[in-house]
TrEMBL record:
Protein name as annotated: Nitrate reductase
Sequence positions that bind Mo-molybdopterin: 157
Cofactor(s) needed: Mo-molybdopterin; heme; FAD
Subunit structure: Homodimer.
Domain of life: Eukaryota
Biological process annotations from GO: nitrate assimilation; nitric oxide biosynthetic process; sulfur compound metabolic process
InterPro entries (alphabetical): Cbr1-like_FAD-bd_dom, Cyt_B5-like_heme/steroid-bd, Cyt_B5-like_heme/steroid_sf, Cyt_B5_heme-BS, FAD-bd_FR_type, Flavoprot_Pyr_Nucl_cyt_Rdtase, FNR_nucleotide-bd, Ig_E-set
Molecular functions per Gene Ontology: heme binding; molybdenum ion binding; molybdopterin cofactor binding; nitrate reductase (NADPH) activity; sulfite oxidase activity
Segments of this protein annotated with the region Disordered: 1-58
Length: 878
């Protein structure tokens, strides 16, 4: 514990919750009130100086609220009007336990009713419905004929923290940060006393209320249970003073309802009517607002079927347990230099609903594996120690053992532990042992978000820790949720969307483990000299070399899945690297058939020397050479998601084009850190019209430490490649070329297609996309395309924006279907693998199938197509 004490002393930040925080009271007679109880020297929390704004802001001048003075610090979440605002989180917190009205969050569904001073005494509140004695009380009566109490109550909008939900999936609600809550001392009569006057009938069960604000769907109204009102322990009251001052226009001037422990939406402002009923309120705002519909109900479902809104089980009353970290604030930094304190004191708020007390607040530095208890301070308790007059009401907490207010927590954490943590998560528990959940419960209205509050810790290169809040309302920088989203992270990945070290996409095209397969024929004992090999450097009888062994490709020219070109371009060459790089075990098993002999040592040497010869040829119009590896410099890398990047490589000159026909691919060769040569085929993202550079989209397959699965050799090597490094390209390769206007060539034969189906998965999109783009970007091209793209999760969809754009621009030429095997609940598209049903959907009018994806996917699509009677000549597998 001694370290903790040190930490508190070391921490220079100000103590914002020392009470009483603010001796200077605003003008009025309150000081008198206090002096009458001088014998009672218990210190209670009193509000900070109020200094109410007197000026109508320019921004409000042209709105119906041009009569309401406001504080410019309030953050407007729904534009200029209506006024839905919260204070910056730290500003709110720094006020202490009680929030001045001008910084108290505001939720106005419409304009603020204008009530002039002289109209207030005669303001009327009617009590009607199932009462024996319907009455209308004036404001003056309510003040004078009922006992007045003063109670501290925290109000919270059901939408508090909604921005976090909206980041995951847009809800039908605007983006509150974590400051849609505030606390004040409220003065007025208990609503139970007022109701009694009207003599409720036995069958009255609900208390409906209505405000004076005229809204698009009628007046604002809602209801609560009458029994709750009658239970004085629940503290449900009418209030005409907030922190000792008459209500401000935004908070319900001249009178409102205040309900402890329940969402703010039930506390009607500008109160005019109370109706007792045997049914809940039929007000539009009661029915269509402040509800948590089941998570699987989509906005469309809720629109179609009114039953979701008529179900009282989904209406929110009690608040739920919730908490937030305030300090460190978003983008706060901590430099780790010599001046760095040993401890950083984390601080924030917590609250629960139904008047339940927060009984523990816990923080974790290891994503919830282990937790530490924070200190909790309950300023509300200080009011229980005294009974006195305050603001013209009896301070009425001494006999109450329930909790109406927020509390504060703090925990000093050793900075060296923060250095080693990726984040800090927070959760609170209340006295019903209800604990905040780890995961979000998303619903149509985006309400009651109370999952663990998480702060990400980033390590800046200059030796600083930088803290990120999940979201920040209307401000920059926007917090980790925005960052994760931009990185393409999936919030449902179990790690708040952050990259999980070693995470592997199970539908990925992982390179198959290369087993040693014997490729030679023991009968082929011929020794071949370099002259003989060179004599077969032609397209009629192409010989090629793999690992010093010579093969005759002639019998395989027709059958080679990569087309004759790939064999012809290998003629007379040592193609060991690319052969090993791209061929499967079963391909290797076929090789003994074509083995004709072994190169002599001299021939080996000659071949090696010729391939090492510097490329001195004059600059050509296009970069690629099908018969030579061409060097290129890695000049730029752009991160498009946590595992995908666009690599840019320089061509020989700024005016040179790559020279890759649409539909063909190229090969990349490089040496990894261990000196091992790796070769893989790729289709660039940039078009062949691009000069000077080539862009290649690469999805990196990381090692999976958990399962011990190795990542992608090539993609990991590329990812580790330093800028300025050279690697090599060779190509073009491929049996398919799209010529434009529906014309293509397959295995050298010119043909045409009216309609193409493009089936792909993972990074298989890249060759497909090249063809699709050629079709879609040419307005003269009448070909139609059906794109069927299968992935694991939404974040794995490559070229998504590009696809959407092509689709948008060509609604009649292009159909686009995404399907996910592991979607999150926010996904509304197709789910499951690419199966027969989907393939059949794509088959309408299709005369050419282009397929590219992981081996498993290609295999099953081939089976489906064959089963459907599609001829092999109409299928292209890349
Ligand atoms: N008449 C009326 N009462 C109302 C509202 C409203 O728009 N009109 N908004 C409700 C909602 S949703 C909330 S959260 C609280 C907000 O109270 P505040 O603006 O004083 O913070 O008022 C509630 N009472
Ligand atoms: Mo609200």
């Amino acid at each position: 514990m001694s370290t903790v004490t040190t930490a508190r002393q070391a921490e220079p930040g100000k103590q914002s919750h020392v009470f009483p925080p603010s001796p200077p009271q605003s003008e009025k007679a309150e000081s008198e009130t206090m002096s009458t109880t001088e014998e009672d020297d218990v210190e209670i929390p009193l509000p900070p100086p109020s200094e109410p704004p007197t000026k109508v802001l320019d921004i409000d001048a042209n709105t119906p609220d041009n009569h309401v003075p406001r504080d410019p610090r309030m953050i407007r979440l729904t534009g200029v009007h209506p006024f839905n605002t919260e204070a910056p989180l730290t500003t709110l917190y720094d006020q202490g336990f009680l929030t001045p009205p001008k910084l108290f969050y505001v939720r106005n569904h419409g304009h603020v009713p204008q009530v002039l001073d002289h109209e207030i005494p005669s303001w009327k509140v009617s009590i009607e419905g199932l009462v024996e004695n319907p009455i209308t009380l004036t404001f003056t009566q309510i003040l004078e004929e009922f006992e007045q109490v003063t109670i501290p109550i925290t109000m919270v909008c059901a939408g508090n923290r909604r921005k976090e939900q909206n980041m995951v999936r847009k809800s039908q609600g605007f983006s509150w940060g974590a400051a849609a809550l505030s606390t004040s001392l409220w003065t007025g009569p208990m609503l139970a006393d007022v109701i009694e006057r009207a003599k409720p009938m036995k069958k009255a069960q609900f208390l409906c209320m209505e405000g004076a604000d005229q809204l698009p769907n009628g007046k604002y109204g809602t209801s609560i249970r009458l029994s709750w009102v009658q239970n004085r322990e629940r503290g449900i009251m009418l209030a005409h003073k907030q922190n000792g001052e008459p209500l401000t226009p935004d908070h319900g001037r001249p009178i409102r309802v205040v309900i402890p422990g329940q969402i703010g939406g039930r506390s009607v402002k500008w109160l005019t009517r109370i109706i007792l009923s045997d049914k809940p309120s039929d007000n539009w705002y009661h029915k269509y607002d402040n509800r948590v519909l089941p998570t699987m109900v989509t906005p469309e479902m809720s629109k179609k079927d009114d039953k979701w809104w008529n179900d009282e089980r989904y209406a929110i009353y009690d608040l739920s347990v919730n908490s937030a970290i305030v300090y460190p604030q978003n983008d706060e930094t901590l430099s780790l230099g010599e001046t760095c304190p040993e401890f950083y004191r984390f601080r924030g708020y917590a609250y629960s609903g139904g008047m339940r007390r927060i009984t523990r607040v816990e923080l974790s530095l290891d994503k919830g594996n282990t937790w530490e208890l924070a200190d909790i301070d309950y300023p509300e308790d200080r009011y229980r120690e005294t009974e006195r007059e305050l603001y013209g009401g009896r301070l009425d907490m001494a006999s109450r053992d329930v909790c109406y207010c927020w509390c504060f927590w703090q925990l000093p954490i050793a900075v060296n532990r923060l250095v080693n943590a990726e984040d800090v998560v927070l959760r609170a528990m209340d006295e019903s042992m209800t604990i905040q959940p780890r995961d979000m419960y998303w619903s149509v209205l985006g309400m009651m978000h109370n999952a663990w509050f998480r702060i990400a810790i980033r390590k800046d290169s200059d030796g600083m820790l930088r803290f990120e809040h999940p979201t920040v309302p209307m401000a920059q920088p926007k917090g980790w949720m925005d960052r994760v989203k931009k990185e393409g992270g999936d919030f449902a990945n179990g790690n708040w969307g952050e990259k999980v070290k070693g995470q592997v996409d199970d539908s990925a095209e992982m390179p198959e483990p290369v087993k040693k397969v014997k490729m030679t024929n023991d009968e082929a004992k011929r020794i071949i000299e370099i002259e003989e090999l060179r004599a077969h450097d032609n397209k009629d009888e192409p010989w090629f070399v793999v690992s010093g062994e010579v093969y005759d490709g002639t019998p395989f020219l027709k059958e080679h899945p990569g087309g004759a070109v790939s064999i012809i371009s290998a003629a007379g060459q040592d193609v060991t690297d690319e052969f090993v790089g791209i061929h499967s075990e079963s391909a290797c098993e076929m090789m003994p058939k074509y083995h004709i002999g072994t190169l002599s040592p001299a021939a080996r040497e000659a071949l090696l020397n010729s391939s090492l010869a510097p490329d001195t040829s004059a600059p050509t119009e296009t970069f690629l050479n099908p018969r030579a590896w061409r060097p290129s410099t890695f000049i730029a890398k752009k991160q498009v998601s946590w595992d995908s990047r666009i690599f840019t490589f320089a061509l020989d000159s700024e005016t040179q084009r790559l020279g890759l026909p649409v539909g063909q691919h190229l090969m990349i060769r490089l040496k990894d850190a261990n000196g091992k040569t790796i070769v893989r085929p790729y289709t660039p993202l940039s078009t062949d019209a691009k000069k000077g550079v080539v862009d290649i989209l690469i999805k990196v397959y990381f090692d999976d430490e958990k399962t011990g699965t190795k990542g992608g050799e090539m993609t990991l090597a590329l990812d580790a490649l330093p800028l300025g490094q050279k690697l090599e390209f060779k190509g073009p390769l491929g049996k398919f070329t799209y010529l434009g206007g529906g014309q293509f060539s397959l295995d050298g034969n010119p043909r045409t297609a009216k309609s193409m189906a493009m089936v792909c998965g993972g990074s298989g999109i890249t060759p497909i996309f090249a063809v699709l783009r050629a079709v879609m970007e040419d307005p003269q091209d009448p070909t139609t395309c059906f794109v069927l793209d299968g992935n694991r999760q939404e974040a794995d969809i490559l070229c998504r924006e590009e696809l959407d754009e092509l689709h948008k621009a060509n609604p009649s030429k292009m159909q686009l279907v995404h399907t996910l095997t592991a979607p999150t609940h926010s996904w509304t598209g197709r789910t499951g693998r690419i199966d027969k049903g989907l393939v059949e959907e794509a088959a309408k009018g299709t005369d050419l199938w282009l397929v590219c994806g992981p081996p498993g996917m290609e295999k099953s699509v081939r089976e489906i197509l064959t089963g459907m009677g599609v001829q092999a000549e109409n299928m292209v597998f890349f």
